[in-house]
Amino acid sequence: MSRKKFGQLLQKYLRGECTPQEKQFVEHWYGLLETETGESRQELDPAELEGRLWNQIQQKMETDETPVIPIRTRSYRWIGIAASLLLVGIWFYVKPPVDLLVMQSLSADTQTDWTERSNPSGKPLVIRLEDGSTVQLAAHSSLRFPNHFAPEKRTVYLTGDAFFSIQKMSSRPFYVHTDKVVTKVLGTSFFVRTQLADRQIRVEVVTGRVTVYKEGGGKEKQSSPNGVVLSPNQMATFFSKEEHFVTGLVDAPQLIQPAVRDQTPLTFQFDDAPLAEVLKTLEQAYGIKIDVDNEQQKNCPLTANLTSQPLYTQLDIICAALRSTYEVHGTTILISGKGCVQ
Question: Which residues form the FecR protein domain (predicted)?
Fold first, then answer.
């Protein structure tokens, strides 16, 4: 087994995604590290822990000796593991290759069932996944994904930027791991962008709903301080240094396709229409909450043709006609003004 594969297995263990056989293998080496050095894994950061465990495995391969496990009186939490080490001692006694034991303990996805694609070109690289989902991988980005997804979930790992179009499977959520951020969807389309200079990760939703939360945060709910739920035209930016999310609207909101095909198409041509009606039309078209700070504004009449204009240009035209202003507050747009004379 290579150092890279062992590192992947260790990360999988820390995320709680190991099979029982993989978990037993990792905890065996944890037990040896603690009983031989007296150090607890809680005392080491993940990178140092990986290095210490890997060095330990390499030393066993070089010496090919049967490990002698002294049970320290203070290491009571490893008694269960130590009891299982008798079997490990037998393994070394009969001297099978250590790498063979490692490979037998790994599941298929940590051995050969994962693919990593990188995009060294200057244009997007389209990757089609087993479930029918597609990923447009941006330049200088990479994606690691299994050739066969697990029955209960679909998981991929992204470095860089990509646009995801995910096939809807209500019983198999799709997870995108990007550094410290996890994006969970059932079936939708969205962007994931990484800004290395500022250590920021941004998720922008095009269709459907997306849950975004901090890796290891545990909670996947909007009420959790570690995560948010996003709808179309909304985005969340994770600031790695502060370790928190900031929500907002995408730079160029797009029209949301109507759910019913025979639904009457929205029109953006208004003739002496009250502002309340105009804003209701925009809310339906973009799925964005638009509010006013002065209720008297809602009755102000508007005559304008906003067809084929982007949302923010439409708002500029409305505010110019009504002598108002607008601001984006999180995922809501607020229009401010004195109202109008009836």
Answer: 122-210
Terminal alpha carbon distance of the chain: 79
Type and span of the H or E element at 210 = strand 210-214
Contacts of 140 (CB under 8 A, 6+ apart): 119, 120, 160
Q: What is the predicted pLDDT for the residue at 73?
A: 37
Residue 332: give its domain's CATH number.
Answer: 3.55.50.30
Structure confidence by residue, pLDDT tens digits, 197-226: 778 999 999 999 999 999 875 544 443 446
Residue 104: Cβ-neighbour burial (10 angstroms; 0-12, 13-18, 19+):
exposed
- Structural domain boundaries enclosing 16: 3-109
Of 81, 109, 137, which marks where a domain is finished?
A: 109
Q: What percent of the chain has pLDDT over 90?
A: 51
What is the spatial distance between Cα 175 and Cα 187, in angstroms, rounded to a whole number? 11
| Shared domain check, 303 and 278 | yes
Examine residue 262 and state whether it is found in any structural domain, yes or no.
no
**Final residue before a domain boundary, out of 49, 81, 109:** 109
Residue pLDDT, tens place only, 241-273: 888 899 999 999 999 866 555 566 788 999 999
Min mean pLDDT across 35-44, 63-72, 283-292 is at: 63-72
d(CA 330, CA 82): 53
Strand order of the β-sheet with 332-336 is 289-292, 332-336, 325-329
Cα-to-chain-centroid distance, residue 232: 16
Domain identity same for 121 and 232: yes
Q: Are residues 119 and 241 in the same domain?
A: yes
Within-domain flag for 342: no
